[in-house]
Amino acid sequence: MDMKRNVMTAAIMLLCLLFGTVCSAEEKPPIQPGVGVVIIGGADFTTADFLRAASEQMGAEYQLGQELQQKLALFWYDKGFVEDQTKMSKDEMIEFAKYSGLDRIIYVTTGTPVVEQSKDIWVGSIIRTSMNARVIVMEADGTMVDLFSASQNGDSRSSEMRAKRDCFKKVMREIRTHIEENKSGTKKVA
């Protein structure tokens, strides 16, 4: 009887250990089919209205918005940074491509926009903005698929932020056009 109790206790303990090991194993998210767009740059470009404008230009097949930007913020936090970083190294891009759980990431690194204000006798004051963005398209395995730049101008009669948003929309539209023209995905950059 005593031997049965010891064997049962040992079996239960083994099951508990096995169950605990399985439950505590870190689950790595599977790579989902999909393309994510991450904006790297100043705080202006990651606000809800800029992300909404970018999402409208890119279309529904691209994952873009607060959720993916939040994943980027968590990535930086796991690396020891409290705030988002405005620059990423190649290794960090490869790490985030794996961390995101998506099969492809489009990194859009925004430059500092140039803002000019001019006065026109007929129209009044016009705010003009020009912006450059570096775009890197990377597979989850770290293969760089595409690398290009996009630049556009925007203007507004009322505010600097609207001029920036207009410019940003045009840049995102240019990025979408470039990606659609090279849709095959076979273009590999060495």
Features of this protein?
alpha/beta; Rossmann fold; 6-stranded mixed β-sheet; 6 strands; signal
What proportion strand? 25-35%
CATH architecture: 3-Layer(aba) Sandwich
How many separate helices? Answer: 5
- What would you call the shape? elongated
Biggest sheet, open or closed, and with what strands and sense? 6 strands, mixed
Query: In the CATH hierarchy, what is the class?
Result: Alpha Beta
Helix content: 40-55%
Task: Provide the succession of SSEs.
Answer: HEHEHHEEEEH
pLDDT averaged residue by residue: 82
**Overall tally of domains:** 1
CATH T-level topology: Rossmann fold
Signal peptide: 1-24
Keywords: Signal
Report on the structure:
Keywords: Signal. Residues 1-24 form the signal peptide. The protein has 190 residues and is α/β, with parallel strands linked by helices. It has one domain (32-181): Rossmann fold. It has helices at residues 2-24, 48-58, 66-78, 90-100, 160-181, and strands spanning 32-40, 62-63, 102-110, 114-120, 124-139, 144-156. Strands 1, 2, 3, 4, 5 and 6 form a 6-stranded mixed beta sheet that branches. It starts with a helix and ends in a 9-residue tail after the last helix. Mean pLDDT is 82; it is low at 27-31.
